[in-house]
Specification:
Elements: H1 6-10, H2 12-20, E1 23-31, H3 37-47, H4 53-66, H5 83-88, E2 95-100, E3 104-110, H6 118-125, E4 130-136, H7 143-154, E5 159-165, H8 174-191, E6 195-200, H9 224-230, H10 236-239, E7 243-245, E8 248-253, E9 256-262, E10 267-268, E11 273-277, E12 281-289, E13 298-299, E14 303-308, E15 319-322, E16 328-339, E17 350-355, E18 358-364, E19 369-371, E20 378-379, E21 389-402, H11 409-412, E22 413-417, E23 424-433, H12 435-439, H13 449-456, E24 461-466, H14 473-486, E25 491-495, H15 496-499, H16 511-530, E26 534-538, H17 544-552, E27 559-564, H18 568-574, H19 579-584, E28 606-608, H20 615-628
Parallel strand pairs: 1-3, 1-4, 4-5, 5-6, 24-26, 24-27, 25-26, 27-28
Antiparallel strand pairs: 2-3, 7-15, 8-9, 9-14, 10-13, 11-12, 11-15, 12-14, 16-21, 16-23, 17-18, 17-22, 18-21, 19-20, 19-21, 22-23
Helix pairs in contact: 14-20, 16-17
């Protein structure tokens, strides 16, 4: 509910006008489990008379039924709305609330305290201007306090209020309060938090929430509400260079063409020179169009349509910048990555990266290090698990315009999406472009794939065999190559076991190593296709994403996926290398089909089942499929 104002009754138009132009502060509450975050925000809303009467009645009923404060109101229930939250007395999801006072409008995100919900906290903090960090006066600065403080610093939140809560349970001790302040200041200095305001509060009793408390005569700072009303709303976005990602090209008729989007940095006026990236074309802003008419100026946070004086090419995902201070353009970066999914990050796996309004393909290298957010130590890591944070190099499938996250959160922040499930699996912050992304270019050569294929008198391609261990892949692949060789086709066979003696001898059998195993073979296969030959590949290759990566490395029609579809029980019965027996005995970890998954192809070009077909018959079926697709004559 909005704050009470005399203007509502006397002059509603003036009230609405004044309300429209109030500043907006986005802030989060965070901290350790049971520090009182939800109770604090609930009390803040209640003390500010920002709760409707019917909500109060429902709160009273809920407090009597599932509350934790006996006959008193349980203000946490205003925020914790999920059944699981009320049953367990914890916050799980991010709860957003909008409210306003005479001086300012607010959007507050109440974030979870449990470590397993760190991803939810990151989500809530990603758009916040300020943070209220809760500390239980009885417990002091805890591990999760440090974790959330580090994340607040990492995500660029510069205004932090530390609410030392539950002061009523320590008899409003000035000494305890001072000790907590000193301990937090020491940690804040190490992680780069420069602006900290400490406030002793009791969310349950209402001390120093909206009015100064008589229980803390030794405290002379602001109340929590007073602090929130006066926190400077950063004007960095407005004072930074102009940036606007193109959301869509607005062309309602043949005589109007504009570029719509939200301004995420700086200001823009008609007549300003701009540059469109990544193409680098330049023009001048002609008009700033909105539903309410043209503007003389647009500032960060506004959604507008720009018309330009020149008919230049721009589309969704492009970035319109100030011409004299444009963003950088690159395709390789160093970045902080926050992993947000139960399945660990797999270095080398192709993911999608969404930055601004642009979505591109991305692969993530092995982490340079993982950050222990409790101690700030840099730890060695091969991958990142749920809620872990690391510094990694990223390789994109095309160059993008960007700013470092420290310069612009919108053009430097990104999310990572799984290509198959479309789940958001991570988030990140760009540091800088890697120097080699500017210095490494594709070298044109005189003899290309077409010339090599013509000399060989054949069409190049990849015949990719996938299936469980013991399915018969290697046997069939060997027969196929022999038949092709007899017909005069230039071939090469890449077998999973053979390459582990050389090219991939450094790799094990974890999911991350399996991804890298296939990534390398996909690159080698693409080079062989470029050499004009038919490459036969026989690998378990258990993951669809990596098989898709291999397919994407060559042109349409050059990749033939052969699924050797042998049931697990048949493959295990054969067990030519004794591997299934070892896996069942626990002597062989991460074995596909037993304790590591196999994702069968959904639409392979060829499917053969060796439980009902001989190896010779399966090979002939593959060769016939190659003839039908024009790979061989």
């Amino acid at each position: 509910m909005a704050h009470a104002s005399d203007l509502i009754a006397t002059d509603i138009d003036e009230y609405l006008t004044s309300h429209q132009y109030k500043s907006l502060l986005r802030f989060i509450t965070c901290g350790s489990v049971d520090d009182g975050k939800s109770t604090l925000i609930g009390r803040l809303l209640y003390e500010s008379h920002l709760v409707f009467e019917d909500h109060l009645a429902q709160l009273a009923a809920d407090s009597a039924k599932v509350g934790t404060q006996g006959t008193d109101l349980d203000f946490a229930l205003l925020l914790d709305g999920l059944t699981a939250e009320r049953e367990q007395g914890i916050t799980i999801d991010v709860a957003y609330r909008f409210f306003s006072t005479e001086r300012r409008k607010f959007i507050v995100a109440d974030t979870p305290g449990h470590e397993q919900y760190t991803r939810n906290m990151v989500t809530g903090a990603s758009t916040a201007d300020a943070a209220v960090l809760m500390v239980d006066a009885r417990k002091g600065v805890l591990t999760q306090t440090r974790r959330h403080s580090y994340l607040v610093s990492l995500l660029g939140i510069k205004h932090v209020a530390v609410a030392v809560n539950k002061m009523d349970l320590v008899d409003y001790s000035h000494e305890i309060y001072d000790a907590i302040c000193a301990e937090f200041l020491d940690f804040a200095g190490r992680i780069g938090i420069d602006h900290v305001t400490f406030i002793p509060v009791s969310a349950l009793k209402g001390d120093n929430i909206t009015e100064p408390s008589g229980h803390t005569p030794w405290y002379h700072g602001p109340t929590l509400m007073g602090h929130l009303e006066t926190v400077p709303v950063d004007d960095e976005a407005t004072s930074s260079p102009f940036r606007m990602p193109v959301q869509w090209v607005n062309r309602p008729s043949h005589d109007f063409r504009g570029f719509s989007g939200r301004v995420v940095g700086g200001t823009v006026k008609p007549g300003d020179p701009v540059r469109v990236l990544p193409a680098g074309t330049t023009s001048t802003v002609e008009r700033i169009v909105t539903m309410d008419g043209d503007l003389h100026e647009a500032v960060a946070g506004q959604s507008v349509t720009l018309t330009l004086s020149d008919e230049i090419d721009a589309s969704r995902g492009d970035l319109i910048c100030a011409a004299d201070s444009p963003a950088e353009v690159a395709d390789q970066f160093e970045a902080h990555v926050v992993w947000m999914h139960e399945d660990e990050m797999l270095p080398g796996r192709p993911y999608l990266m969404k930055i601004g309004t642009r979505t591109v393909g991305v692969t993530i290298a092995h982490p340079k290090y993982r950050v222990d957010v409790n101690t700030l130590d840099h730890l060695a890591a091969h991958t990142l698990a749920l809620n872990e944070i690391g510094v990694c190099n990223l390789s994109l499938d095309r160059a993008i315009p960007f700013d470092p996250y420290s310069t612009n959160r919108d053009t430097g922040g990104f999310v990572i999406i799984d290509k198959l499930t479309q789940n958001t699996v991570g988030a990140g912050l760009l540091h800088f472009a890697l120097r080699r992304s500017h210095n490494i270019h594709w070298q044109d050569v005189r003899v290309d794939k077409g010339a090599r294929a013509e000399l060989n008198g054949q069409q190049p391609g990849v015949v990719w065999f996938t299936g469980l261990s013991g399915s018969g892949k290697s046997t069939i692949a060997d027969i196929v190559e022999a038949k092709l060789h007899a017909d005069g086709v230039r071939t090469y066979l890449l077998d999973g076991d053979n390459v582990r003696h050389g090219l991939n001898r450094d790799l094990g059998f974890t999911d991350a190593d399996r991804v890298e195993n296939i990534r390398r073979i996909a690159e080698v296969s693409a080079l062989m296709v470029d050499a004009g030959i038919v490459v036969v590949v026989s690998f378990i290759s258990p993951f669809r994403a990596e098989r898709q990566l291999a397919r994407d490395r060559v042109e349409d029609g050059e990749f033939i996926e052969v699924h050797v579809d042998t049931p697990l029980e048949v493959a295990e019965e054969r067990d030519p290398k004794g591997l299934y027996a070892k896996a069942r005995a626990g002597e062989l970890a991460n074995f596909t089909g037993i304790d590591s998954p196999y994702e069968p192809p959904e639409a392979p070009e060829v499917r053969v089942n060796t439980s009902v077909m001989s190896a010779e018959g399966a090979a002939e079926a593959v060769v016939e499929a190659l003839r039908m697709r024009g790979i061989i004559g």
